[in-house]
Amino acid sequence: MRPSPRLVIAGLALLSLGAGLLLVPGTAERLTMLARDGRVASAAALGEAASNAGGAEPPVLARLFELDRSEGDPARAEARLLDFLRERPDDTAMLRKAAAFFGDSRNFPRQRDMLERLTAIDGTGSDFETLARLYRLDGRFADERRVLLTAPASALSPALRLRAAHLLSADGQDAEAARMLEGSPETSIEAEGEALSLYMRALVASGQAAKAAVIGVDRVADGLSVGEQAQFVLALALAGADAEALRLATAPRPDGGDASAIAWMLGERGRFDLATRLLEAGLGDADRRGLRKAMRLYADLALATNHLGCAVAEVRRLASGSAASPQRAAALAAALFERRGYGVIAPVRPWLTPSILREEPLFAARLARLEHDPAAARRFLLQAGEDEDEPAARQAAFEALDPVEAKTGTEMRRTPRPSDPPKHPSLIRAADPDEEAKS
Question: Of 86, 59, 24, which is closest to residue 47 (Cα–Cα)?
Fold first, then answer.
């Protein structure tokens, strides 16, 4: 059975009427169109009428807020804003607009209220940062701390994470401070500075020295400055993590630098023992030049830190016993002799045998001269040969022994002077192995 034409026409008419009603713009759309056409007064009148009639829905209030703010009526804009938030208190977009609006109008208490509500729902890093800054400027540091420490670490900017880590570290919560900085761009391998330094200190203070050493070695391999490396080594050393400190201090540097500066800093900060171990660790494959440099640094450090007695005892240890090292003993004795003269090595002179002195013949020649033994001094100089490391020192020693021979090359002569101190038999050591064997 075919439908009646009248019913079809009636149905189409109803559909057209419904579609027409749906296409009639609502109040919010009409406000938008009027404002777009520049008919601000008409839009304001329409909004006021809708508000007075109780028909101001949240979309209308949002549009009226934008309209009043653009027209320079902050009081009415604030009223529309608060009306909207009473209807929709959890609207994050409008809360963020409200925070910006109150910030522009310098109504900081209202701005803080909006940000508190916003961060409790779904705040961004910028929201947390602004709220924390407002509390800090107002002297409300407890509230600032609460904001920073309740915010997800991933939502905080690197600057805020650093601030939060400082607060945690100041309260002794070093493990939490380290976790706050974990994975921060400021503590990446490419970064240096305050964040990385705090991160390393927090790791050490929270008992994670091994992890700190591993991270430090990675940073050194990637070009960490010597100054930063020294600070991290010192932090490990002062915490008693000597093994980790040595591991970090001896990490190979891309620039080929040595650990001299680190050893010096350790000695100045009361860890002369660790500085000594660090210098010894670098002597494994050192040549004569490197050995002399290390021993001179050791002597300077001992003098600067009032550990001269330790240095003298080290000469004796290296000259005798199971850990004897003639080269090191001679180099250290020579370094001490250069800086403090004969008196400083007199206590260990009996242990400086001819076989040890031959490792540093120029030093041995000077020593023999002071002991009034020119023949031994000459033999030591002949053993020295052409010392490529210190030609100037060799020439100076040669001239000090006999200025005439230094210029003419003739046989060495020396006439005792009345002012010379008496020659003590116990201080004489034969430079010739044959003479030593005969005795």
Answer: 59
Residue 343 lies in a domain: no
Tell me 259's DSSP state. S
Domain that holds residue 222: 172-179+189-249
CA distance 313 to 315: 5
72/199 Cα distance (integer angstroms): 49
3-class state of residue 276 by DSSP: helix
- Please tell me the total count of domains within the chain: 1
Q: Which residues contact 428 (CB under 8 A, 6 or more apart)?
A: 371, 373, 376
The phi-psi region of residue 385 (left if phi > 0; otherwise alpha if psi is between -120 and 50; otherwise beta) is left
d(CA 195, CA 184): 9
- Decide which of 19 and 225 is more confident: 225
Q: What is the spatial distance between Cα 433 and Cα 439, in angstroms, rounded to a whole number?
A: 10
The pTM of the whole model exceeds 0.70: no
Question: Could you read off the pLDDT of 125-147 as tens digits, one per residue?
Answer: 888 888 988 998 888 988 988 88
User: Is 337 within the bounds of a domain?
Assistant: no
Long-range contacts of 97-101 (CB under 8 A, 24+ apart): 97/65, 99/127, 99/130, 101/69, 101/77
Q: CA 231 to CA 222: how far, in whole Å? A: 17
Q: Is residue 216 part of a domain?
A: yes
Nearest-5° angle of CA 409, CA 410, CA 415? 120
Q: Is 325 part of a structural domain of the chain? A: no
